[in-house]
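Input record (Table S2, row 313):
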Amino acid sequence: MTDQTVGLVSAASLGAWLLKANPTIYPIAEWIQDRPDEPVTSWSVQRNYRSAMMEAGQPVYLWISGDGRDIEPGVWGYGVVTGPCEVGTADSRWLDRDAASGAGYYAMTEINFLASPVSRSALNSDPRFADLEVLKVPAGSNPSFLTIDQARALRELAQAADRGTCPRCRNGEILHVVFGMLPPGSLDGEPPWVTEGGCVIMGLPTNRHCPACGLDWLATSGGRPQARTLHELRTLLGCDSTAGLEDLLWDHCDVDVHVEDVPDDHDEVGALSLRIGTRGVTLEFPFSVTEFIVTVDELLAEVLDDWDEELRG
Ligand SMILES: [Zn+2]
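Output record (zinc ion complex):
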């Protein structure tokens, strides 16, 4: 048996698993749009010798197929297998009910979405992936897999895709900062822009730094900037005052949005209150900028519905 033998994978030749998502069967584009920080903890797979080989600690990628109408096809997530596959049932989000009723076996994972994908076209034009199963046999087994060499090459591309950009000045040459007492060699194999930050003495810890504009911020594993205070939210959105933030929301919504701190029991800021007209919502820190905008949009939709009803009533 060699690595070229299509369809055969062994523990010795396995570099990583690749789980496939079809956007016409499951609304994966919507998930990434609305809940990019929510990891994929289980994914439907076929019950075969491959899924029987899945075990905790193995690297795994999430692949999105399709014609590119809803979402760019390619690798969108990276993580690990957390345990053996389990029997289960499809959740209510499945778009294709026939496919859902046939989905009874699930890989257990912790997969985070990348800041940007490694596109199918990028892999197609890279000779290191000439034999990649998902490119050669797109309709083949799920899980698909990568050889050790393919997995090493993809790790490099996925790390670069996950680097992200500065939320303030859009610079792409940002640094990922790892804090804490790291044992020697911890960052071996990491790209040169992953640096050691030492120990945090004071202030809120951050894990991203922009050398161009000096901004320090906290990002999730998928690269999304997180706000832990109203001040951080303003900084991430480039507003130097709460009034400035409200102006920005006015531009976004075309209506007045009122923003206010909600202090917690310890006299610190624990949440943010958003109000449009008579409707309001409280959003607890920390949250990502994406979650903030989605919440604003949801509140706006409720208010517009109210106004519609008033007009009709
Ligand atoms: Zn910057």
